[in-house]
Amino acid sequence: MGDTAPETTSKEVDIYRDTWVRFLGYANEVGEAFRALVPVSAVWASYVVATAYVTADAADKGKKAAAAHGDNPGKTTRVGVAVVDTFIWQALASVAIPGFTINRVCAASLYLLGRSTRWPLSVRKWTTTAIGLSTIPFIITPIDRSVDFLLDNSLRKVYGGEGEKHE
Fold first, then answer.
1. How would you class 45 by CB atoms within 10 Å of its CB: exposed for 0-12, middle for 13-18, buried for 19 or more?
2. Less crowded by CB within 10 Å, the N or C end of the chain?
3. Average pLDDT in the 152-159 region?
């Protein structure tokens, strides 16, 4: 038996990916789930919150890329790639695709409940919201992986790399 201490890895906490702040990226999905119950302005406000999250994460990744590359040649390009890659990935994976998906799930649910039940409208709306909210955890990973695949096979080929995997 040796005197070796257990190996520990020190990983920097990313406030936008490793803390509660990440949930702000899901604001529009929650807004879409509640669309049948709240004013449209509340749904749009949820998109403002999610878009602010996406923008802040992209700016943060640009700042980190700038710090990592110091005064090395190509710093501006590396920073630009970090910002653009993060912004596009987040805009697709956190806002556009999940927002559309939850919107369509809820619209279809409300329609089908109207056609197949005699429930009062308020019950159908609350049920639609519950279906939308319960769908969110199931769509996150497939959408994230699909956006990685899309960017790996398109935009990331342009700037020569696979970029950062987002989870």
1. middle
2. N
3. 92
